[in-house]
Protein backbone atom coordinates (compact mmCIF):
# COMPACT_ATOMS: atom_id res chain seq x y z
CA UNK A 1 0.00 0.00 0.00
CA UNK A 2 2.76 2.44 0.87
CA UNK A 3 5.58 3.26 -1.58
CA UNK A 4 8.17 3.51 1.20
CA UNK A 5 10.99 1.49 -0.36
CA UNK A 6 13.32 -0.97 1.32
CA UNK A 7 14.45 1.23 4.21
CA UNK A 8 10.99 1.20 5.80
CA UNK A 9 8.73 -1.84 5.68
CA UNK A 10 5.00 -1.90 6.35
CA UNK A 11 3.34 -4.95 7.86
CA UNK A 12 -0.37 -5.11 8.63
CA UNK A 13 -1.54 -7.17 11.61
CA UNK A 14 -5.27 -6.72 11.96
CA UNK A 15 -6.01 -3.11 12.94
CA UNK A 16 -2.34 -2.37 13.61
CA UNK A 17 0.20 -1.09 11.09
CA UNK A 18 3.74 -2.17 11.98
CA UNK A 19 6.45 0.08 10.56
CA UNK A 20 9.87 -1.55 10.51
CA UNK A 21 13.03 0.54 10.23
CA UNK A 22 15.05 -1.51 7.78
CA UNK A 23 18.71 -0.52 7.66
CA UNK A 24 20.00 -3.40 9.81
CA UNK A 25 23.54 -3.19 8.45
CA UNK A 26 23.72 0.39 9.78
CA UNK A 27 21.75 -0.33 12.96
CA UNK A 28 18.81 1.58 11.45
CA UNK A 29 20.66 4.89 11.52
CA UNK A 30 18.41 7.78 10.55
CA UNK A 31 19.07 9.07 7.05
CA UNK A 32 17.22 11.81 5.23
CA UNK A 33 15.57 9.14 3.12
CA UNK A 34 14.32 7.27 6.18
CA UNK A 35 12.96 10.45 7.78
CA UNK A 36 11.08 11.20 4.57
CA UNK A 37 9.71 7.68 4.39
CA UNK A 38 8.50 7.83 8.00
CA UNK A 39 6.79 11.18 7.44
CA UNK A 40 5.07 9.89 4.30
CA UNK A 41 3.98 6.70 6.05
CA UNK A 42 2.41 8.69 8.89
CA UNK A 43 0.48 10.84 6.43
CA UNK A 44 -0.85 7.90 4.45
CA UNK A 45 -1.68 5.74 7.46
CA UNK A 46 -3.59 8.59 9.08
CA UNK A 47 -5.87 8.62 6.04
CA UNK A 48 -6.38 4.85 6.31
CA UNK A 49 -9.31 4.30 8.69
CA UNK A 50 -8.43 0.60 9.05
CA UNK A 51 -5.01 1.44 10.55
CA UNK A 52 -6.13 2.07 14.13
CA UNK A 53 -2.77 1.63 15.86
CA UNK A 54 0.79 2.17 14.69
CA UNK A 55 3.75 0.12 15.93
CA UNK A 56 7.30 1.37 15.33
CA UNK A 57 9.93 -1.38 15.29
CA UNK A 58 13.42 -2.08 13.97
CA UNK A 59 15.01 -4.86 11.94
CA UNK A 60 18.35 -6.34 12.89
CA UNK A 61 20.18 -6.12 16.22
CA UNK A 62 19.25 -2.49 17.03
CA UNK A 63 16.04 -0.51 17.21
CA UNK A 64 17.81 2.64 16.00
CA UNK A 65 21.36 3.87 16.57
CA UNK A 66 20.39 7.50 16.01
CA UNK A 67 21.54 9.87 13.30
CA UNK A 68 23.77 8.78 10.44
CA UNK A 69 27.17 10.18 11.52
CA UNK A 70 28.51 10.26 7.97
CA UNK A 71 25.59 12.52 7.07
CA UNK A 72 26.27 14.66 10.13
CA UNK A 73 29.86 15.10 9.02
CA UNK A 74 28.60 16.38 5.68
CA UNK A 75 26.19 18.63 7.57
CA UNK A 76 29.12 20.32 9.31
CA UNK A 77 30.18 21.60 5.89
CA UNK A 78 26.75 22.99 5.01
CA UNK A 79 25.74 26.61 5.27
CA UNK A 80 24.09 27.46 8.58
CA UNK A 81 20.72 27.91 6.88
CA UNK A 82 20.87 24.52 5.15
CA UNK A 83 22.07 22.80 8.31
CA UNK A 84 19.17 24.31 10.23
CA UNK A 85 16.72 23.08 7.58
CA UNK A 86 18.16 19.55 7.82
CA UNK A 87 17.79 19.53 11.61
CA UNK A 88 14.26 20.92 11.36
CA UNK A 89 13.27 17.93 9.27
CA UNK A 90 13.77 15.56 12.20
CA UNK A 91 12.18 17.97 14.67
CA UNK A 92 9.07 18.16 12.47
CA UNK A 93 8.89 14.36 12.26
CA UNK A 94 9.01 14.03 16.06
CA UNK A 95 6.27 16.64 16.41
CA UNK A 96 4.24 14.83 13.74
CA UNK A 97 4.50 11.67 15.84
CA UNK A 98 3.55 13.60 18.97
CA UNK A 99 0.31 14.90 17.44
CA UNK A 100 -0.51 11.73 15.47
CA UNK A 101 -4.17 11.01 16.33
CA UNK A 102 -3.87 7.23 16.68
CA UNK A 103 -1.81 5.49 19.38
CA UNK A 104 1.86 4.85 18.60
CA UNK A 105 3.65 1.95 20.27
CA UNK A 106 7.45 1.71 20.31
CA UNK A 107 8.58 -1.94 20.12
CA UNK A 108 12.18 -1.74 21.34
CA UNK A 109 14.15 -4.96 21.07
CA UNK A 110 17.71 -3.59 21.14
CA UNK A 111 19.72 -0.36 21.40
CA UNK A 112 17.80 2.91 20.93
CA UNK A 113 20.43 5.64 21.00
CA UNK A 114 20.35 9.41 20.41
CA UNK A 115 17.70 10.12 17.74
CA UNK A 116 16.49 6.54 18.14
CA UNK A 117 15.71 7.26 21.76
CA UNK A 118 13.91 10.38 20.55
CA UNK A 119 11.69 8.27 18.28
CA UNK A 120 10.82 6.10 21.28
CA UNK A 121 10.01 9.13 23.45
CA UNK A 122 7.69 10.55 20.78
CA UNK A 123 5.54 7.39 20.91
CA UNK A 124 2.62 7.03 23.31
CA UNK A 125 3.55 3.63 24.73
CA UNK A 126 6.94 1.93 25.02
CA UNK A 127 7.34 -1.84 25.31
CA UNK A 128 10.96 -2.96 25.58
CA UNK A 129 12.74 -6.29 25.66
CA UNK A 130 14.94 -6.87 28.70
CA UNK A 131 18.01 -6.65 26.45
CA UNK A 132 17.11 -3.18 25.14
CA UNK A 133 19.29 -0.19 26.00
CA UNK A 134 18.86 3.54 25.73
CA UNK A 135 21.52 6.22 25.51
CA UNK A 136 22.01 9.93 24.78
CA UNK A 137 25.70 9.95 23.78
CA UNK A 138 25.67 13.29 21.97
CA UNK A 139 27.76 15.25 24.49
CA UNK A 140 30.55 12.69 24.19
CA UNK A 141 31.11 13.67 20.57
CA UNK A 142 30.53 17.37 21.04
CA UNK A 143 26.85 17.42 20.08
CA UNK A 144 23.63 18.23 21.93
CA UNK A 145 20.41 16.13 21.97
CA UNK A 146 18.52 19.20 20.84
CA UNK A 147 15.51 18.21 18.72
CA UNK A 148 14.67 15.22 20.90
CA UNK A 149 14.99 17.13 24.18
CA UNK A 150 11.30 18.15 24.59
CA UNK A 151 10.17 14.58 24.03
CA UNK A 152 12.79 13.01 26.32
CA UNK A 153 12.05 15.44 29.15
CA UNK A 154 8.33 14.86 28.79
CA UNK A 155 8.81 11.08 28.78
CA UNK A 156 11.19 10.67 31.73
CA UNK A 157 10.96 13.95 33.63
CA UNK A 158 13.49 16.76 33.88
CA UNK A 159 15.45 15.37 36.82
CA UNK A 160 16.19 12.03 35.16
CA UNK A 161 16.81 13.75 31.82
CA UNK A 162 19.53 15.89 33.42
CA UNK A 163 21.49 12.76 34.30
CA UNK A 164 21.27 11.03 30.94
CA UNK A 165 21.70 14.21 28.87
CA UNK A 166 24.89 15.16 30.69
CA UNK A 167 26.55 11.80 31.37
CA UNK A 168 25.83 10.04 28.10
CA UNK A 169 25.67 6.78 30.05
CA UNK A 170 23.63 3.81 28.96
CA UNK A 171 20.21 3.15 30.44
CA UNK A 172 19.18 -0.51 30.69
CA UNK A 173 15.60 -1.44 29.87
CA UNK A 174 14.78 -2.53 33.43
CA UNK A 175 16.05 0.77 34.84
CA UNK A 176 14.21 2.68 32.11
CA UNK A 177 11.07 0.88 33.24
CA UNK A 178 11.74 1.72 36.88
CA UNK A 179 12.06 5.45 36.18
CA UNK A 180 8.99 5.50 33.94
CA UNK A 181 10.53 5.96 30.49
CA UNK A 182 9.45 2.44 29.47
CA UNK A 183 5.91 1.26 30.21
CA UNK A 184 6.66 -2.46 30.17
CA UNK A 185 9.85 -4.54 30.11
CA UNK A 186 9.39 -8.13 28.93
CA UNK A 187 11.46 -11.10 27.82
CA UNK A 188 12.52 -10.87 24.17
CA UNK A 189 10.50 -13.98 23.29
CA UNK A 190 7.35 -12.28 24.61
CA UNK A 191 7.86 -8.89 22.97
CA UNK A 192 5.78 -9.32 19.81
CA UNK A 193 2.94 -11.03 21.64
CA UNK A 194 2.75 -8.28 24.26
CA UNK A 195 2.86 -5.51 21.67
CA UNK A 196 0.23 -7.29 19.58
CA UNK A 197 -2.07 -7.74 22.58
CA UNK A 198 -1.72 -4.07 23.51
CA UNK A 199 -2.41 -3.00 19.91
CA UNK A 200 -5.59 -5.11 19.90
CA UNK A 201 -6.66 -3.56 23.18
CA UNK A 202 -6.11 -0.03 21.89
CA UNK A 203 -8.05 -0.75 18.69
CA UNK A 204 -11.14 -1.53 20.79
CA UNK A 205 -11.42 2.11 21.82
CA UNK A 206 -13.24 4.77 19.82
CA UNK A 207 -10.83 6.36 17.31
CA UNK A 208 -12.13 9.87 17.94
CA UNK A 209 -12.00 9.31 21.69
CA UNK A 210 -8.36 8.24 21.42
CA UNK A 211 -7.48 11.29 19.34
CA UNK A 212 -9.25 13.65 21.75
CA UNK A 213 -7.60 11.94 24.72
CA UNK A 214 -4.17 12.50 23.19
CA UNK A 215 -4.97 16.18 22.64
CA UNK A 216 -6.16 16.44 26.22
CA UNK A 217 -2.97 14.86 27.55
CA UNK A 218 -0.88 17.31 25.52
CA UNK A 219 -2.88 20.21 26.95
CA UNK A 220 -2.91 19.25 30.63
CA UNK A 221 0.56 17.70 30.90
CA UNK A 222 2.69 19.91 33.12
CA UNK A 223 -0.08 22.53 33.35
CA UNK A 224 -1.23 23.95 36.66
CA UNK A 225 -4.75 22.88 37.66
CA UNK A 226 -6.82 26.06 37.64
CA UNK A 227 -10.55 26.88 37.47
CA UNK A 228 -10.05 27.82 33.81
CA UNK A 229 -8.49 24.44 33.01
CA UNK A 230 -11.29 22.67 34.87
CA UNK A 231 -13.89 24.43 32.73
CA UNK A 232 -11.95 23.65 29.56
CA UNK A 233 -11.85 19.94 30.37
CA UNK A 234 -15.57 19.99 31.15
CA UNK A 235 -16.25 21.58 27.76
CA UNK A 236 -14.29 18.83 26.03
CA UNK A 237 -16.36 16.11 27.71
CA UNK A 238 -19.62 17.88 26.88
CA UNK A 239 -18.58 18.17 23.23
CA UNK A 240 -17.48 14.54 23.00
CA UNK A 241 -20.55 13.23 24.80
CA UNK A 242 -22.82 14.87 22.21
CA UNK A 243 -20.98 13.19 19.32
CA UNK A 244 -22.03 10.12 17.36
CA UNK A 245 -19.09 8.01 18.52
CA UNK A 246 -19.92 8.42 22.21
CA UNK A 247 -23.60 7.77 21.57
CA UNK A 248 -22.74 4.55 19.72
CA UNK A 249 -20.31 3.48 22.44
CA UNK A 250 -22.83 4.01 25.26
CA UNK A 251 -25.60 2.32 23.29
CA UNK A 252 -23.37 -0.68 22.52
CA UNK A 253 -22.44 -1.00 26.20
CA UNK A 254 -26.07 -0.97 27.30
CA UNK A 255 -27.02 -3.44 24.55
CA UNK A 256 -24.06 -5.70 25.46
CA UNK A 257 -22.56 -5.68 21.97
CA UNK A 258 -19.43 -4.39 20.27
CA UNK A 259 -19.50 -0.78 19.05
CA UNK A 260 -19.46 -0.17 15.33
CA UNK A 261 -15.76 0.66 15.20
CA UNK A 262 -14.75 -2.60 16.91
CA UNK A 263 -15.87 -5.40 14.61
CA UNK A 264 -12.59 -7.37 14.27
Give a description of the structure.
It is a single chain. This protein is an alpha/beta fold and 264 residues long. The chain has eleven helices and nine strands. The protein has a six-stranded mixed beta sheet, sandwiched between helices. The radius of gyration is 19 Å and the shape is globular.
What is the topology?
Layout: E1 8-13, E2 16-21, H1 32-47, E3 53-58, H2 69-75, H3 80-99, E4 104-108, E5 112-113, H4 115-121, E6 125-129, E7 133-135, H5 149-156, H6 158-167, E8 170-172, H7 173-178, E9 184-186, H8 191-203, H9 207-220, H10 227-241, H11 244-254
Parallel strand pairs: 2-3, 3-4, 4-6, 5-7, 6-9
Antiparallel strand pairs: 1-2, 7-8
